[in-house]
Amino acid sequence: MTEAEKSREVKKQEAGGSVATERTRTGRIYMPNVDISEDRDKLALYADLPGVGDEDVSVTLENDVLTIEAKVSPVEIGDHRLSYAEYGVGDYFRSFTITEPIDRDRIEAKMKDGVLRIVLPKKEEAKPKQIKIQAE
Amino acid sequence: MARIGRISWNWDPIQEMERLERDWNDFFSGLGRPSAVKYPPINVFTGEDDVVVISEMPGVNPEDVDLTIIGDVLTLKGTRRRQELGEGQAWHRRERGHGDFYRTIQLPYNVESSKVEANYSKGILKITLPRAEADKARKISVKTA
User: Residue B124 and residue A114: Cβ atoms within 8 Å?
Assistant: First the structure.
């Protein structure tokens, strides 16, 4: 598969997960920006979640859908009044369909400086194998 | 070659409309109007005796950020390092920006630069800028002639 085909595939599957269900908590919800990379052994995902601590983020993988949900606790500003705004503050939600078979027991997720890093190791059977060509 | 294919597959009419809207806003925005392209985005909170500037900049090393204050102008300068690819890795998506940034922010009053405090936590930079003593509001009584 070329890179172009891959990105089209991911895009197509995106809408269902994030649009189909409604949340119980009201308030603004933002879709975090992500970087996703792949190599032989794993997928790695980085998501920008400013304002989110390690305790406030949940990552689940169910039926091949990876879901990221995070709660934001707004910065304490006392009795100051907002005089200029360029961004809104709210929770985060985004989900992806993962087509590669993932080894669920070895998934790792870590928060640092408002960035979530998830490593999804591929199952042994999904790793590409080099096939030797024999000369006749 | 691959690049042309990629752009056409990724073309998204909604995203394109948002981009047009953003350009439109930039074209018409004067000073002080929010624009979607500025990085890092800031929110400014004002109190009687200080201004608090809060900025979302996840994944930035605080050592890569420089703050300077001259009078009532705050300058925010820094770098957001790019996520490097390891051996044999390929990108599926790249939405998180990277690179150098530089912003100047006009504050509502002169600040006491020696008392400015900046704190970086959970990807958010909070800068507290106390108002300069000489600049604080004073009551002036009007004399009659």
Answer: yes
Q: Which residue has the tokens 């600040």?
A: B111
The CATH code that applies to domain A9-75+86-124 is 2.60.40.790
* C-alpha–C-alpha distance, residues B77 and B100, integer Å: 8
Q: What ipTM was reported for this prediction?
A: 0.75
B96–A35: do the CB atoms touch at under 8 Å? yes
Enumerate the domain spans of chain A: 9-75+86-124
Tens of pLDDT, residues B64-107: 999 999 888 999 999 999 888 888 899 999 999 889 999 999 99
Distance CA A22, CA B83 (A): 33
Q: What is the pLDDT of residue B2?
A: 34
Amino acid letter, B59: G
Neighbouring residues of A39: CB distance < 8 A, sequence distance ≥ 6: B86, B87, B88, B89, B90
Cβ-Cβ pairs closer than 8 A, A with B, add up to 138
- Per-residue pLDDT of A92-122, as tens digits, reads 999 999 988 999 999 999 999 999 999 999 9
